[in-house]
Amino acid sequence: MPTFASALVAIAVIAVAATLLFGFLNLARPGSGERSQKLMRWRVGLQLAAVAVIVIVLLTRMH
How many domains does the chain have? Predict the structure, then answer.
């Protein structure tokens, strides 16, 4: 049975993957490179949040 922490990690990872996918799809289309850059910046921020969530979950499970 998934716990709240597992669900939070899954949501964080899915958010990073979705943002990465949207960034690549936008990059493949002709047009706004600015939007693609914005999506990639969001991806970096979401990656930071995902790593922080994973570290916090791992630290809380150790005790």
Answer: 1
